[in-house]
Design brief:
Blueprint: E1 3-9, H1 13-24, E2 31-38, E3 41-48, H2 51-63, E4 72-78, E5 93-94, E6 100-108, H3 111-120, H4 132-141, H5 146-156, E7 159-167, E8 173-179, E9 184-187, E10 191-195, E11 207-210, E12 216-220, E13 230-233, E14 239-240, E15 245-246, H6 262-268, H7 270-282, H8 286-293, E16 301-306, H9 308-325, E17 329-333, H10 334-337, E18 348-354, H11 360-371, E19 375-380, H12 386-390, E20 393-396, H13 409-428, H14 434-445, H15 447-455, H16 458-466, E21 473-478, H17 481-497, E22 500-505, E23 522-527, H18 533-544, E24 549-554, E25 568-571, H19 582-599
Parallel strand pairs: 16-17, 16-18, 18-19, 19-20, 21-22, 21-23, 23-24, 24-25
Antiparallel strand pairs: 1-4, 1-10, 2-3, 2-4, 5-6, 6-7, 7-8, 8-12, 9-10, 9-11, 11-15, 12-13, 13-14
C-alpha cells in the first residue's frame, strides 16, 4: 500500500525520485521520505504528511545551501500499517550503524520476534515500524556483500515485501527484491530505476522488467547498453534472464491534462476505455484469443472473488452470467474466501477481478483456489502483475494507468469484459443462438457512444449534486441488477465524500431499513429493469411519504416521466438492455459522487485512510 522508487545513474537522483513519488502518491500519503547517497554518506529527509511538505523541506535545504545531491537514491510514500504516521516512522529507514538504507512496501509478520533478537544483540531501534527491522537485520548480516545480506534477510522475514536497498560501502549498487508486492525495474539511457508502478518511471523510460517473487535485481550505474548494469538473481544467487518489455501507455495518461482531478479525467476517458476493451475481446486482440481457449463445458460452477469495487463488478456480473448462461455463480469477498472452507474443485472456474493484480487478499484467494484444483481466470489492468502471471487465463482491461484512488474507468472495463465473457460462455453452452449472440454484442458495441452521450450532459448531475453536500446519510436502492450496481454507487460516494451511505435491495426496505428514513433523507433509486419499474417506484413513494427526497437514475416506461414531482428528481439514461445498463448507471453514480465531494472541497484523488493498491491484509 506504499509506493517506492529508486534511481542509480548519471543524473541527479533527487528530482527524479521526487517526481516519481508524485506519480506514486496514490499508493499512500501519510508521509514521504528520500535518502540520497552523497559525499558524506546517506542524507535522509523524511516528513509526516503529504509529499508537498517533503518538497518544502527540500526547498529549505536548498535555500540554506545544504541541498540533497547525488546520483543514487531511494524514496517512499507511506500508508501506515505498523506505527502511527510520524517523521520517525517515515521511510527510508537507516540501520543503527548508518550503513544500510531501506524502503519497504508490505508487512513483516514476524517483525516482533526479529526485533527482540536484534535488541538482545544490542541493536537500538528508532521507530515503531516493522520496516526498520529490515534495515537493522541487513546491517547485522552484512559482511561485505550486499546481495548475500539481502538473501539472508529475505529468508529470515515472513510476510510481504518490495524492497529497495542501498549500502554505504557499495555506492555503485542499488538492490531490489520482492515477495507478494509489486516491483518493476526501469531501464534507460541515463540510468536505471526500481518502482512500485510504471507511472513513476514513464517520464524517463518505457522499458521495464517485472520481478517475480523472491527474485533479486542488482542495478549499477551506466546505460542500458551495458548488460552488466542490470542483473537478476534467484535466492541461490544464480543468474536469471529477464525479458525487457515495452510499456505502451503514454505519459499523458498519467497526467491530469487540465482536469482538476484525476478522477474526473478518468470518468471522462470511459468511452475510449470501453471501446478499446470491447475491441480487444470482440474484434482483434489477445483477449479474444484467450476467450476462445476457455472451455466452460468443463465446469459446473463459477466463483467470482474480488475486493472493493471489483467485488461489486462481480456481484453485477452474477446476474448476467446466470441469466444467459444458466450456470451457478457465487460471488465471494476475497478476504473471506481465503478463510472459509470453499466448496471448489477441478470442476470450478474461479474468476478473480482486480485492477492492480496485486491485491493481497485476491492473491491469497487465487492460490487457495489453485491448491484445490480449480481453474483460474483473472481480469486485470496491470500487465506483469502477480495475479496476471499466476492465473491460468488472464484478460486485460484496456484502461491504462488509473491514478485516482477511487476506481472508475477500470471498473467499467471490468464490467464490459465480464459481459463478453458471459456471452462467450453462453454460446459455448448452447444457451444463445448466433443471432442472439450478435444482438448482445451489438448492444455492448453501442455502450461507448451511449456513455459519451451521458458525459455530454453532466451539468444536470453537477447541479443536483451541489444540493446534496449537507446530507449525513444517503441510501441507494435497486432491484435485480440495479441493486448490484447500487452497491458501487454507495461505495463510490462514501470513499470520496465521507458521507455515510448504504445500498439495499428495494424489497428489503420494509425489513428494517426504512426505520432510518426521516425528513430530507436522500434515497438514490436505480431503475433500468423496466419490468420492475412499478416495484422500485413503490419503494420511492414509501420513502417520500416519510419525508425523503429521491434521485431516480434510469429509464422510465413511456408516459411515466410526468409523474415526477418536487420530491423526486430524474436523470434519464439511454435505452439499453437491463443486463448491460450498469455500464451507464455507474457513470452517473460516479459523477454524482465526484461532484458531491468536489462541492465539499475534498481531496478527491487521495481520500483519507485509503490507498489505491491494497497489497497488505
Amino acid at each position: 500500500m506504499c509506493g517506492i522508487i529508486g534511481y542509480i545513474g548519471e543524473d541527479d537522483a533527487v528530482d527524479i525520485i521526487v517526481d516519481g513519488l508524485k506519480k506514486l502518491e496514490y499508493r499512500g500519503y501519510d508521509s514521504a521520505g528520500i535518502a540520497i547517497y552523497g559525499r558524506n554518506g546517506f542524507d535522509v529527509v523524511k516528513q509526516k504528511g503529504r509529499l508537498a511538505i517533503l518538497e518544502e523541506r527540500l526547498a529549505v535545504r536548498l535555500k540554506e545551501n545544504k541541498p540533497l545531491a547525488g546520483n543514487l537514491g531511494i524514496g517512499h510514500t507511506r500508508w501506515a500499517t505498523h506505527g502511527e504516521p510520524s517523521d520517525i516512522n517515515s521511510h527510508p529507514h537507516v540501520g543503527s550503524k548508518n550503513k544500510i538504507a531501506v524502503v519497504h512496501n508490505g508487512i513483516i509478520e514476524n517483525y516482533k520476534q526479529l526485533k527482540e533478537r536484534l535488541e538482545n544483540w544490542g541493536v537500538s531501534f528508532a521507530s515503531q515500524t516493522d520496516s526498520e527491522v529490515i534495515a537493522q537485520l541487513a546491517e547485522h548480516y552484512y559482511d561485505g556483500d550486499l546481495i548475500d545480506a539481502v538473501i539472508k534477510v529475505s529468508n529470515a522475514v515472513e510476510g510481504s515485501y518490495a524492497l529497495g536497498i542501498m549500502c554505504i560501502d557499495e555506492p555503485d549498487m542499488l538492490v531490489a527484491v520482492k515477495k507478494d508486492n509489486p516491483l518493476i525495474i526501469g531501464i534507460s539511457d541515463h540510468g536505471n530505476f526500481i518502482a512500485s508502478d510504471v507511472p513513476a518511471v514513464l517520464k524517463h523510460t518505457n522499458k521495464v522488467c517485472y520481478l517475480n517473487d523472491k527474485e533479486i535485481a542488482v542495478l549499477r550505474r551506466g546505460c542500458a547498453a551495458n548488460a552488466e548494469n542490470v542483473l537478476f538473481f534467484n535466492m541461490d544467487k544464480e543468474p536469471l534472464h529477464k525479458d525487457i518489455e515495452t510499456v505502451t501507455w503514454s505519459m499523458d495518461s498519467a497526467e491530469k491534462d487540465g482536469y482538476p482531478h484525476f478522477m474526473l479525467k478518468e470518468i471522462m476517458e470511459q468511452p475510449k476505455v470501453l471501446r478499446d476493451t470491447i475491441q480487444s475481446a470482440v474484434i482483434d486482440g489477445n483477449n479474444k484469443n484467450i476467450l476462445e481457449k476457455i472451455d466452460i463445458s468443463r465446469f459446473n460452477k463459477i466463483v467470482i472473488t474480488a475486493c472493493g469495487s471489483a467485488y461489486n463488478a462481480g456481484v453485477t456480473a452474477k446476474y448476467v452470467f446466470e441469466k444467459i448462461c444458466r450456470i451457478s455463480v457465487e460471488v465471494e469477498l476475497a478476504s473471506e474466501f481465503r478463510y472459509k472452507d470453499a466448496i471448489i474443485n477441478n470442476k470450478t472456474l474461479v474468476i478473480l477481478v482486480t485492477q492492480s493484480g496485486e491485491t493481497a487478499d485476491t492473491i491469497a484467494a487465487m492460490r487457495e483456489a489453485k491448491s484445490r484444483g480449480a481453474a483460474t481466470l483473472s481480469i486485470v489492468n496491470v500487465v506483469g502483475s502477480t495475479i496476471a502471471k499466476e492465473t491460468d487465463f488472464c484478460l486485460f482491461t484496456a484502461a491504462g494507468p488509473e491514478i485516482a484512488v477511487a476506481t472508475t474507468k477500470a471498473f467499467s472495463a471490468q464490467l464490459v469484459l465480464l459481459y463478453i465473457l458471459a456471452i462467450r460462455f453462453a454460446v459455448r453452452l448452447g444457451k444463445l443462438t448466433v443471432q442472439e449472440e450478435q444482438n448482445y454484442i451489438n448492444e455492448i458495441g453501442g455502450l461507448p457512444d451511449k456513455a459519451s452521450s451521458i458525459l455530454e450532459r453532466i451539468g444536470s448531475i453537477q447541479m443536483y449534486a451541489s444540493t446534496c453536500v449537507g446530507y449525513k446519510s444517503i441510501f441507494f436502492i435497486g432491484r435485480n441488477i440495479d441493486y448490484a450496481i447500487s452497491l458501487e454507487g454507495s461505495l463510490k460516494l462514501k470513499e470520496i465524500s465521507y458521507i455515510h451511505s448504504e445500498a439495499y435491495a428495494g424489497g428489503e426496505l420494509k425489513h428494517g431499513t426504512i426505520s432510518l428514513v426521516e425528513e430530507n433523507t436522500l434515497v438514490v433509486a436505480l431503475s433500468n429493469c423496466l419490468y420492475l419499474y412499478g416495484k422500485i417506484m413503490s419503494n420511492a413513494e414509501q420513502v417520500i411519504s416519510r419525508g425523503a427526497k429521491v434521485l431516480l437514475i434510469g429509464s422510465c416506461p413511456e408516459g411515466k416521466a410526468d409523474t415526477m414531482n418536487e420530491k423526486l428528481y430524474h436523470i434519464s439514461l439511454p435505452q439499453v438492455t437491463d443486463l448491460f445498463s450498469p455500464s451507464l448507471s455507474v457513470i452517473v453514480l460516479q459523477l454524482f459522487s465526484y461532484y458531491v465531494a468536489a462541492n465539499k472541497g475534498l481531496d478527491i484523488d487521495k481520500p483519507r485512510n485509503l490507498a489505491k493498491s491494497v497489497t497488505v491484509e
